[in-house]
Amino acid sequence: MIRVSILGTGNVAKHLFATFMKIEDVKVVQIIGRNKIALKIFGNSVDTLSDFSKISDADIFIIAVKDDAIAAVSEYLRNKKGLIAHTSGSVSMDVLSGQRRHGVFYPLQTFTDDRKVAKNSVPYCLEAHDETDLDLLKNLAGKLSDKVYEVNSEQRKVLHLAAVFVNNFTNHLYHIGKEICDEKGLPFAILQPLIQETLDKTKQLTPYQAQTGPARRGDSETISKHLEELKKSGFGEVYGVLSKSIGKLYGKDTNGQHH
Amino acid sequence: MIRVSILGTGNVAKHLFATFMKIEDVKVVQIIGRNKIALKIFGNSVDTLSDFSKISDADIFIIAVKDDAIAAVSEYLRNKKGLIAHTSGSVSMDVLSGQRRHGVFYPLQTFTDDRKVAKNSVPYCLEAHDETDLDLLKNLAGKLSDKVYEVNSEQRKVLHLAAVFVNNFTNHLYHIGKEICDEKGLPFAILQPLIQETLDKTKQLTPYQAQTGPARRGDSETISKHLEELKKSGFGEVYGVLSKSIGKLYGKDTNGQHH
Ligand SMILES: NC(=O)c1ccc[n+]([C@@H]2O[C@H](COP(=O)([O-])OP(=O)(O)OC[C@H]3O[C@@H](n4cnc5c(N)ncnc54)[C@H](OP(=O)(O)O)[C@@H]3O)[C@@H](O)[C@H]2O)c1
Ligand SMILES: NC(=O)c1ccc[n+]([C@@H]2O[C@H](COP(=O)([O-])OP(=O)(O)OC[C@H]3O[C@@H](n4cnc5c(N)ncnc54)[C@H](OP(=O)(O)O)[C@@H]3O)[C@@H](O)[C@H]2O)c1
């Protein structure tokens, strides 16, 4: 049995709580948060607490608060015996180095309100100051997911950057695709199978191998036409820079300059 | 029973052939191609032909050759009674206007050798000069997929452009994500669940609503750090331009300038 407490009441806290509750040999001791209304969402099946001076001990304290509040919140755990781990992709483990036992429990996924994320679609990236604490985090994560990785602070920072490309920027490209469809009265759903196949291909081929399109072919005539079509939209610069980046990768000299 | 012939022996021809063969009330009359070795791949279950002057009649001729060969190839069908349709996203229907019955049968999907694309993951975008011919194409496409759209040449051109964003450019972002992982010895698979969730979210939220990340928040400190980390990689410009585009969309003034 692992006894876990969560500090914070946001998206990550909610996801972790819901996941822990489904696992027999994990017990959630307390949810601690400054936001009393948010605490109510956790219901009566768990002890909720807004007074940070009354925190009980636990095997693991998971700090799932805003990045820049992690250090301050960890101070309330100074006399605890349990392991203290934050959930941030971009904050170094060292922010907790004032605590004897500390580590990182980073779920590499995007959580938003109103969307449940399936159990096995969350990779956990773990780090700890001590070997035995790392084992404890591995033990916990292993109950939640079969995707458990040991990732140091330097790697985690870089993963977070990679996530900006494959999550934030990809989503923006979806937005642009949708805008282009909307303008001509086409449903965005028409692109969904293509989007799915783009992703599925990378399970069989590397993205480098899977690349297609005018920029890869060095088809500057099509690129020019597209840039012309995009003039009013404001998305020409995105098109130009990405085409240029692809062209460079495959040694093509296209006119994908943004203008 | 719809009698179909295919001109061309490439990726689209192969996909369509494999799909037609599975459908009882579609008969493939001939596969016509200039490439005799490629014709062999279609096996003995269908009549293959490399002499374009000996084409039999059919209900529908599907021209699945390179964009700039469509017009020339269609000339061989001048005296046929059947409907002539090309499969290109970017070529106007008018390229076939010399033929009495003509239209477009555009599968909005990415086909490459060695990858089977599932039946219902191909939307068909249809256009025809005559109403009855459009019905014939709808009838055929309806046997292959439940995603059948009527799309005119102007809309199709724009769809093709949207596809560049959601397919070609997204794939390039996957490539960048993989490069960033590779450099730190992290497996690209670690990002797969996040990539899948990015896509799945857009089935519930619009990409506009689903957007997260430093550029959306206007978190210029993180953006600066990321640009610094990317300096050596050559991907800073892509990061900068996409961050700027997101920032503009949400009215944030970040320092996401590329440099
Ligand atoms: N969302 C994701 O997709 C995701 C994924 C992986 C990792 N993470 C990381 O997980 C952590 C939490 O993220 P989240 O998305 O769950 O954030 P969130 O939904 O914005 O929730 C933040 C929580 O932090 C609390 N908080 C903020 N400042 C505080 C302070 N000074 N003292 C006490 N509590 C404070 C907030 O309380 P109030 O409601 O009172 O403001 C709220 O409960 C962050 O480190 C984040 O980087 C997030
Ligand atoms: N691949 C896709 O993802 C995709 C998706 C939707 C639509 N399309 C469209 O479908 C069509 C075919 O694309 P594809 O990917 O199947 O192309 P592909 O794999 O490159 O095959 C092209 C075919 O065209 C033939 N061809 C080229 N020039 C010719 C000529 N002058 N006379 C006769 N045959 C000629 C080629 O024969 P050789 O082998 O002898 O060169 C080959 O059989 C294009 O209009 C394309 O835009 C493609």
Structural write-up:
Chain A is α/β, with parallel strands linked by helices and 259 residues long. Chain A folds into 2 domains: 2-151, NAD(P)-binding Rossmann-like Domain (Rossmann fold, 3-Layer(aba) Sandwich); 156-249, ProC-like, C-terminal domain (N-(1-d-carboxylethyl)-l-norvaline Dehydrogenase, domain 2). The N and C termini of chain A lie far apart (60 Å). In chain A, 42% of the residues lie in helices and 15% in strands. The first copy, chain A, is elongated. The longest helix of chain A has 31 residues, at 153-183. In chain A, α9 runs antiparallel to α10. The complex binds NADP nicotinamide-adenine-dinucleotide phosphate (2 copies). The site of one NADP nicotinamide-adenine-dinucleotide phosphate has 25 residues of chain A, from α1, α3 and β6. Chains A, B: InterPro entries: 6-PGluconate_DH-like_C_sf (IPR008927), DUF2520 (IPR018931), NAD(P)-bd_dom_sf (IPR036291), TM1727-like_C_sf (IPR037108). Chains A, B: This is DUF2520 domain-containing protein.
